[in-house]
Design a protein that fits this description.
Layout (H helix, E strand, L loop, with lengths): L9 E6 L3 H12 L3 E7 L3 H10 L4 E3 L2 H5 L6 E4 L6 H10 L3 E5 L6 H14 L3 E4 L8 H9 L6 E10 L13 H4 L7 H11 L6 E9 L11 E8 L4 E7 L5 E9 L3 E8 L8 E7 L4 E3 L8 H18 L7 H20 L3 E2 L1 H4 L1
Helix pairs in contact: 1-9, 4-5, 5-10, 8-10
Length: 352
């Protein structure tokens, strides 16, 4: 990672101004030390909306033109998965730092290429696993590291929600543009599981199962579950259904001494009015932990932009590195292979 320190405000260029991209723009605009100077959007309607909402930003149709803008110091890439490698590699080679939405790529080769380019160009490559910045999901990690559980042995990360939004031009329901559906949202939960069980070493294998309510599109997996084993004996369960309602996420972690249970619920994922709680058992008593600020992906997105401002201006550490992003893609690719082959898949099968 670069040791260069930049003066604030840090100038952001945003590539992608769809539903989630607009939230990224809002987060940049409201973050102290950040300035949104450029936006690229494919459709004229999106460009018109960007001009109206952010009149001080330069608006582009072609991302290559945005990359020529010398004022842009870091690019925030919020595009469909299949475009991540093309745009990200061009961004890094243009000398810009990069925040890349998950998944980092749709293959390990794409991930490895981006890591190599970022290293050669001495640029920061941050991956958008914003749940690590959550006041609640992050507090679970802190309690684990502080020894609250003893040695962590098991983690469950589970989501029950309504179906995905289709995305612009229906890209999210086109498997050729998604890569696979495990890469779409379970990737966040694989990242959390690996993060929580870090003391147990690297993941070594996964067994996954999935099915679909849509007989003509079995590749669009409405229900998904996986069990993942780690080097030192811990294991994690990652499970999701898109056949439910609203948005409800649960994390349970147990260890040799205690347990934690965190839950989050909202009418939708991008709500600013969720309900949430974190409870623990320390081996003797059950207790509730206060959450010091609201949690939810809109709040974590704002925290992610603030984190990047601090990284670029003060040299602090990334919450999720490119290597972490590569691990997340690897776990999802192995899980999909397990579904397809109906067997346990070792991660070294995909890396050897």
């Amino acid at each position: 990672m670069t040791t260069e320190k930049l003066q604030t405000p840090i100038s952001f260029g945003l590539i992608g101004f769809g539903a989630w991209g607009k939230h990224h723009a809002d987060a940049i605009a409201k973050t102290d030390g950040a300035k949104l100077v450029a936006i690229c959007a494919r459709s004229e309607a999106s460009r018109a909306a960007a001009r109206e909402t952010y009149p001080d930003a330069t608006i582009y149709e072609d991302y290559r033109e945005l990359l020529k803008n010398p004022a842009v110091q870091i690019v925030d890439c919020v595009l469909p998965s299949y475009l991540h490698h093309e745009v990200s590699s061009a961004t890094l080679r243009a000398g810009k730092h990069l925040l890349l939405e998950k998944p980092m790529g749709v293959s390990l080769a794409e991930c490895d290429d981006l890591i190599a380019i970022a290293r050669a160009e001495n640029r920061i490559l941050a991956i958008g696993h914003e749940l690590r910045l959550s006041s609640m999901w992050g507090q679970v990690k802190t309690l684990i590291e502080d020894g609250y559980l003893g040695e962590p042995k098991y983690a469950l990360v589970e989501l029950s929600r309504n179906p995905y939004r289709q995305g612009a031009d229906g890209w999210r329901y086109d498997i050729s543009r998604v890569g696979n559906w495990v890469l779409e949202e379970p990737i966040h939960f694989f990242d959390l599981a690996r993060w929580y069980l870090e003391q147990s070493g690297d993941p070594i294998s996964v067994y996954a199962a999935a099915n679909s309510r849509q007989p003509d599109h079995p590749e669009l997996q409405d229900n998904f579950s996986a069990i993942m084993h780690f080097e030192k004996g811990a294991y994690a369960v990652v499970s999701q259904t898109l056949s439910a309602f609203e948005h409800h996420q649960t994390v349970k972690v147990t260890g040799t001494k205690g347990a934690l249970w965190a839950s989050w619920s909202g009418a939708m994922d991008r709500t600013r009015h969720p309900t949430y709680s974190l409870r623990g058992f320390n081996g003797e008593n059950v207790e509730s932990f206060p959450i010091d600020k609201p949690t939810g992906e809109l709040f974590e997105l704002e925290d992610q932009i603030a984190m990047l401002v601090n990284v670029l201006s003060s040299g602090t550490s990334l919450s999720c590195t490119a290597e972490d992003g590569r691990w997340s893609v690897l776990m999802c690719l192995a899980a999909q292979k397990s579904i397809d082959d109906q067997r346990i898949v070792r991660f070294d099968e995909l890396t050897s």
